[in-house]
Amino acid sequence: MGTQLEICLQGNDAGVLRRAASAAVQEMERLSQMMSRFHTASVVNALHYASGLRPIPVPPELFSVLRMAKERARLSHGAFDPTVGAYKDWRFDGTFDRSPGSLQLAQQRLLVNADQLILDPLRQTAFLQKRGMRLDLGGIAKLPILQAGLKVIENMGVENAMLNGGGDVFVKGKLNQQPWRIGLRDPRQPAALLGQIALSDGIVAASGDYERFFFENGQRQHHILNPETGLPTRGPHGLALVAHHTSSLLRDINGLGTALMVAGSARARQMLAALPNVDAFIVHHDESLWLSEGMKHRLLKTAIQR
User: Fold this and answer.
1) Coil, strand, or helix at residue 231?
2) Which structural domains are found in the chain, ordered by start?
3) Which UniProt keywords are listed (predicted)?
4) Is 292 helix (H, G, I), strand (E, B) or coil?
5) CA distances in angstroms from 158 to 53, 114, 146, listed in the order given
6) CA 194 to centroid of chain Cα atoms
7) Fewer CB within 10 Å: N-end or C-end of the chain?
8) Nearest to 141, CA basis, from 68, 239, 41
9) pLDDT tens-digit readout, 53-73
10) Position 219 confidence tier, pLDDT thresholds 50, 70, 90
11) Contact between 167 and 206 (Cβ < 8 Å)
């Protein structure tokens, strides 16, 4: 999905570890090619080609992600929307450091509506109702892809694993008989850590305006777009979410980081209050720091730098 992948495994048989890592990478690459808008032959791009024309069959893994995307859009009242891919003129790869024009964004806004992503569970099809609609699953596909990689590793008998996909992390088991230590990047100083979390079974998901961006007229333009405007969010600088027990809480946390970045700090805290099993920190636009009660207790405070 356009991010770097890191896998760390521990066990007694180096051969098994190598095979498990290789099999996990193959599975995650298969799913990425299926779900990424950057792969021209992906199923997601097939949905784009068929938009406004006809439903097309989709594999069960993609259908599951699309269902989660619609559910996150509903729960967030549109703060998360998988159809923001319609804002297709943004570039964050260094090739074109200029914002799209207001007229372009206004026209594309008409194509952003998660309700017009139609899923048929009986036929296992998906349909983008308006011609020109496009998906961007970057905010919701990475965690299921990482989870699939972890499942491959577990099925091969490896009990201790950490998978990191661009700041989204799954862990199981231990490292050197101790819980994994996961560093949480400080959005105000991306090269530094805000702190660490000790996990033996959990998910860490980070979102922020510091990964893919450019400056225009002195203002940071970054890749997390507000579905209502097509413009980069102007709420939190960044945040991190921690869920304990990977199997049960993926749905609670998946897509939530993007939704919170769009919703803004005050609404984000309200949304998190309804999720007592999710720990979080938010660095607000004014660079002040907010910690949930769970994060206050779990964050290793000796590592806090600001």
Assistant:
1) coil
2) 37-128 (1.10.3980.10), 177-303 (3.10.520.10)
3) FAD, Flavoprotein, Lipoprotein, Magnesium, Metal-binding, Transferase
4) coil
5) 46, 39, 15
6) 20
7) C
8) 68
9) 999 999 999 999 999 999 999
10) confident
11) yes
